[in-house]
Design goal:
Layout: H1 2-156
Length: about 170
């Protein structure tokens, strides 16, 4: 049994030594990697620091610009609001004036239409009166003249001559 124990101790020792060598290799690799990572981080810091400083300067410039231009922007917005209000009130007044002008124009057009209608009605009525006044005496005079001519014709024995009427021969 002694041989087995010795063999087991030898194998275990060899495994421990192998484990120690593996751990040593891992330690060397980690140190090497740590050096590379540290170097990369230092290089990154060296390159990033100027960018960060520039970004801080830019941020400060923007902050100063906003602080100086903020009152001006507020003034511009206030002026725009005032202009908009003034424009709205001006448009409202112009619309009211235009509506008033249109209403007055409509009233004047209605008045003119009524005046023309009355004038036409009076003209028509006057024309009828003139026609009646002129034609009535003419008809009477014509009737009197026809009566006299018929009386004179009958008195002297002449036959009455019809003018413009249909003759008896035309009827069938």
């Amino acid at each position: 049994m002694d041989d087995k124990l010795t063999f087991f101790i030898a194998v275990t020792s060899a495994a421990v030594v192998l484990q120690m060598l593996i751990l040593l290799a891992i330690l060397i690799a980690v140190r090497s990697l740590s050096k590379h990572v540290t170097a990369a981080a230092d290089e990154m810091k060296a390159q990033a620091m100027p960018l960060l400083q520039e970004a801080r300067k830019l941020q400060e410039d923007i902050k100063r610009l906003m602080e100086t231009s903020s009152p001006k922007i507020e003034l511009v917005l206030d002026n725009a609001a005032a202009i908009s209000t003034t424009a709205h009130s001006g448009l409202d007044r112009a619309e009211a004036t235009l509506n008033d002008v249109l209403d007055r124009a409509r009233l004047q057009i209605i008045r003119a239409d009524e005046m023309v209608t009355r004038a036409m009605d009076q003209l028509e009525e006057t024309t009828e009166k003139v026609a009646h006044t002129v034609t009535s005496p003419v008809k009477r005079a014509s009737g009197i003249v026809q009566g006299i001519s018929t009386g004179v014709g009958t008195y002297f024995g002449q036959k009455r001559v019809r003018k413009g009427g249909p003759s008896d021969e035309m009827f069938i």
